[in-house]
Design a protein that fits this description.
Blueprint (H helix, E strand, L loop, with lengths): L10 H12 L2 H13 L3 H29 L3 H9 L4 H38 L7 H9 L2 H20 L2 H28 L4 H9 L8 H14 L6 H6 L8 H28 L4 H5 L5 H13 L4 H35 L3 H20 L19 H29 L2 H8 L10 H24 L6
The structure holds phenylalanine.
């Protein structure tokens, strides 16, 4: 007998779970950093246009393909567009697998920083401690890296093990309100700092003279990553939606919340950075620098109530990352369940172990492990981690996203997509013709531009 398919218990539970997938390290780690690199204002505006013109239509497309098929990414794409499209689903599952393998490592760092900031909050931040050394010390410690990423993987597996309504939805309903609460506390504290005015001007006052062509493509590439698009995560979550929930409303909520949180996180980080003389020159160096090197120390010297907010900030990072890793694992697990008939418990444990093998490589990418550095893959120390991030951000998400626009805009019939989007509960502002125009022309053209740019050597990772 086929297993009864699990569904979201409530519309709000689904919206929170999907928002949890979208909000993650992309919002807290990548977005502030690329906004910094691209000189703020104009870049942020371009990003907002990409989110609305490409991200939102593709979000609706993925959710509708999932709900229509009531199957994992592979099965749902086959049903929607034909047997060969199962390959696009398989591409997505592979992408989820790879992305999860290294995402877990950064997520694990948030656990380490939570422990360290707790220690500093209780016994005081040691005078003269260089946070850059703290960071290199922890990433270079193989045992610690393995323990942290194992801990995070176990947490992810534990949630997915209990299924969609009892695991994923329950965690999202509990954790997302906590996440929003922590973020508001941090925002209030940051807005009171002397650098907040400069931060707001940097983020919201566009200066097009500083915008480069590459920035436009980077903004577009990041919209896929941050909205969890292009690899079937939203198809998978869509496959658990009941018929009477409006896909249009849910998509608008998810996209709006994800964008809002990315902007708030950026305001918080820049307010802190601009409050300290000389800090803005130091930040630029690396993607991880802002989150794990500059900020920890500033909680103890600059941020009002930093003793409390420091550890809370890393709880925020960990929760945001967890609600994303569970969606990544669910893409793989739902595929194993639907296409291979394996029961959820076994599928979850098996997939968790398989992904963890690759997480080991990612976790050791920064360490100088004598045995591993003899292997060719680790010859450059950032090995699997950098290669995987480069490949996923530059190649897999954009190509997967492109295929999805073709499936929804050109292969599926107008009647099929129309009946999913105009399901009787759609909001008044929604116009199906406009969506169809965007999914057929605007989104694929924009994504094709990214792919061509990548071919000519632009790097989004
Ligand atoms: N959207 C997540 C983030 O911003 C990353 C992610 C991508 C999660 C794709 C699931 C699927 O961190």
């Amino acid at each position: 007998m086929p297993q009864q398919r699990d569904h979201w218990n409530s519309n709000i539970g689904f919206v929170l779970a999907a928002t949890g997938s979208a909000i993650g390290l992309g919002n807290l780690w990548k977005f502030p950093f690329i906004t910094w690199e691209n000189n703020g204002g104009a870049f942020v505006l371009v990003y907002l246009v990409c989110i609305a013109a490409v991200g939102l239509p593709i979000m609706m497309a993925e959710l509708l393909i999932g709900r229509r098929g009531q199957k994992s990414a592979v099965g749902a794409l086959k049903d929607a567009a034909g047997p060969a499209w199962g390959l696009v689903g398989g591409w997505g599952v592979t992408c989820g697998f790879i992305l999860l393998s290294y995402y877990t490592v950064i997520a694990g760092w948030s656990l380490y920083y939570f422990a360290r900031t707790m220690e500093w909050s209780f016994s005081g931040f040691p005078a003269g401690l260089a946070t850059g050394d703290v960071f290199t010390g922890q990433v270079g410690n193989a045992g610690l890296q393995l323990a942290l990423s194992l801990g995070f993987s176990l947490g992810t597996v534990a949630v997915v093990y209990f299924g969609v309504s009892k695991g994923i939805e329950r965690i999202a309903r509990t954790f997302l309100p906590i996440l929003f609460g922590i973020l508001i506390l941090l925002l209030v504290s940051a807005l009171g700092m002397s650098g907040s005015g400069e931060a707001l001007r940097f983020i919201f006052r566009p200066s097009f003279a500083e915008l480069e062509a590459d920035s436009v493509l980077e903004a577009l590439g990041h919209s896929f990553f941050t909205l969890s698009l292009g690899m079937g995560a939203m198809i998978t979550y869509g496959s658990y939606i009941a018929r009477h929930h409006s896909i249009v409303k849910a998509s608008a909520m998810i996209v709006a919340l994800d964008t809002l949180i990315a902007l708030i996180a950026t305001v918080i980080m820049f307010s802190v950075i601009f409050s300290v003389a000389g800090m803005s020159e130091q930040v630029g160096g690396s993607t991880v620098g802002m989150l794990f090197i500059s900020l920890p120390e500033l909680f103890y010297s600059e941020v009002p109530f930093g003793v409390l907010l420091g550890p809370l900030f890393y709880v925020l990072v960990a929760l945001a990352a967890l609600t994303s890793t569970i969606s990544l694992l669910e893409v793989v697990v739902s595929y194993v369940i639907d296409e291979h008939g394996v029961a959820r418990h076994r599928a979850t444990i098996g997939s968790g172990i398989a992904v963890f093998v690759f997480t080991i490589f990612a976790a050791l990418s920064f360490t100088d492990t004598p045995f591993l550095s003899t292997l060719a893959v680790f010859a450059n120390k950032t090995g699997w981690f950098e290669t995987a991030d480069h490949f996923v951000s530059n190649w897999m998400l954009p190509t997967g996203g492109f295929a999805i626009t073709i499936a929804a805009g050109w292969i599926m019939s107008r009647k099929a997509t129309e009946s999913e989007l105009l399901d009787g509960n759609q909001p008044d502002w929604f116009n199906y013709g406009v969506w169809r125009f965007f999914i057929r022309f605007v989104a694929p053209a924009a994504v094709a531009a990214i792919i061509i740019a990548v071919l000519f050597g632009v790097d989004f990772s």
